[in-house]
Amino acid sequence: MTREYLGITLMAVTYLCYAIFLWRIIWRIFLLLKIPGDRNKESLPVSQIAPMTILRGVRDVLLLTRLFRVNKLLWIGEWIFHWTFLLVVMRHLKYFLFPIPAFVSGFDSLGLFAGYVFYLSLIYILIVKYRIEKSRYFSTYNFFLLILLIMIGLTGILMRNIMRPDIVEIKYFVLNLLTFNPVSIPQSMLFNIHFNMTLVFLVSLPAHIFAAPYTILHARQCEDRFDLLIHEK
Amino acid sequence: MKNKNSFTSCLSQRQLLELDACTQCGECLKNCPVQDVTGNPNISPPEKIRMFKEFIKATDGLKPMLFGKGEIDRKLLEDFTRAVYECTICGACGRSCSVGIITERLWPMLRKEMVRRGLGPLGAQANIPGAIERTGNPYEKPPAERYLPWFPEGVKVAEKADIAYYAGCTGAYLAQPMVKGDVRVLSAIGEEFTMLPPEDEVCCGFPLFITGQHDMLKDLVIRLVNAYHAKGVKTLLCSCPCCVNIMVKDWPLFYGKELPFRIRHITQFVEDALKKGRLRFRKELHERIIYHDPCYLSRGVGIIAEPRYILSQIPGVQLLEFERHGLDSRCCGAGGAARKVFNENAIAMGRLTIDEAVAKKTDKLVLNCPACYEKVNEALQGHDKQITIVDLMELVAELI
Question: A45, A118, B53, B360: which could join A228 in a potential S-S bond, CB 3.0 to 4.6 Å?
């Protein structure tokens, strides 16, 4: 009976976290739409965006080249972290989908490998930022996120290698969660910790995930037009 | 203004996204000149962004939406205002930003928001609009003395010409060797140029823009653009990086359409004259010189190669570089009108520039901005390290 209540509670908390996550996105779109599109525009030389600018912008986003320019030591860790994070998320789709699509199954080995590299990259970032560089600016929020992700990664690795949960039970829980059908909480304590920490991560997801690709693309556009500001074409 | 009102009123859509894009990585602190001299992370770029996001949440977030808007703690707002005005708006943080935040445009808008709320500007910065209204310049100097003390004898100014020269307030009143050098060099090139009468050559608007006091900007810009247009000007020359910056980036917006003339920095004109043989150096200079890139000229509009070309043409000269130069140049301390309130920071920054130039065993420190010229000269007074400071055009005028 207790496990049933806990299952219902965990499902309610999950829906609440997703609601907060969605609200944060909707709120940002709403704030953005309230601002007139032509406010504070500086007088950049008018020209069509060249295909090369778009390509360079996409490269800047995918390779984090701006970070590479200012801190190569941190860049390698951040770049590996962001890509392995994406692969880990892709691999986790298999727990949410039934039947599992072929493209998700194809990610399995790569995603598993990425999980270990993801964890190591976070440890590397932690060491670079707080032990080697001893950054002058300390962001409590960033530190919290880093530790949270390390804990999520660690519980994931433990579940994979040491304390394996009942995968059928977990998938049953997740699929019922997706169909708003209350079921008992899975028995694995490690899974429940892992899952709850993921919910905390979801509600505290950094907004730069959505905004930074745009600002990086825009900065590239400005940089490519910079020479036209005062120089002859 | 009540502190319950929205904090997004002065931001563009891009700037709102820029606030969200900040990862608070702290990379920008490594190149921040204010951090170099204060070491205070509470006034750093990511901290300012974090605080401003909190203000937005407090006025436009879910909590105020559900339970009504509460007043934001005035102490927090004052701390933020101080942080945003202590900045020199040199743009170095934007240059090193890993997500491409264009901070040299963001900070003035955050200042504008603080002005709107009656919290900014600070100290003497608040006198700028009144001074401009009364005298046409932010230093409240007599308009009649704008050219008189420094204008070289024998130089003719045409009534109408294709080329016009704008001296700018800081040059005309506080860095006169610089503007005198400009006019001597223009005269030596031999191309006819015009200027506005001293009472008509009013402030370009930059001090108002950078301190967030935008009310008079449109009128000033329209007045100046129409005056040059009436003189048939096709190219407007100026040596002040701040003036050039606002002329290029913001004048068209305040004017409401494309300017009827092009804006050029004086080094572009002089470089062209040297390349075409209309100007030649007649004297040699066997010295080691170092050139300091003004922020608003290098990061602002990309004038980096031209001053170096001019200096490289001086016979006998050995040109050195600062560790941080070109787009990565370090602010001398004069930027963002911060020097009007936080002068001790500005002096300390100016001394960092002097110290590096002296450490490189340089004979002359060449500047190219009236604000840099005034502030670095002030920093030199009473400093244990001494060096000869000269403006670029002042130096060129001596050698032609």
Answer: A45
- Subunit contact A230:B263, Cβ cutoff 8 A: yes
Q: What is the ipTM of this complex?
A: 0.92
Instruction: Spell out the residues 6+ positions from residue B339 whose beta carbon is closer than 8 angstroms to its own.
Output: B88, B333, B345, B346, B371, B375
**What domains, with CATH codes, occur in chain B?**
13-120 (1.10.1060), 125-271 (3.40.50), 281-399 (3.40.50)
For residue B82, report the phi and psi dihedrals to the nearest 5 degrees: -60, -40
Report helix, strand or coil for B303.
Answer: coil
Contact B389, B74 (CB under 8 A): no
Distance in Å, alpha carbon of A83 to nearest chain B alpha carbon:
17
Provide the CATH number for the domain around residue A139.
Answer: 1.20.950
Question: For residues B109 and B94, what is the distance between their CA atoms, to the nearest angstrom?
Answer: 15
| Residue whose structure tokens are 């060797």 | B177
**Using CB atoms within 10 A of its CB, is residue B282 exposed (0-12), middle (13-18) or buried (19+)?**
exposed
CA distance A21 to chain B (A): 12
Rounded to whole angstroms, the Cα distance separating B269 from B257 reads 25
Summarised one tens digit per residue, pLDDT across range B151-203 is 999 999 999 999 999 999 999 999 999 999 999 999 999 999 999 999 999 99
pLDDT tens figures, A145-162: 999 999 999 999 999 999
* DSSP SS3 for A82: helix
Nearest beta carbon to residue A71 from set B13, B27, B249: B27
Do A229 and B11 count as a contact with CB atoms less than 8 A apart? no
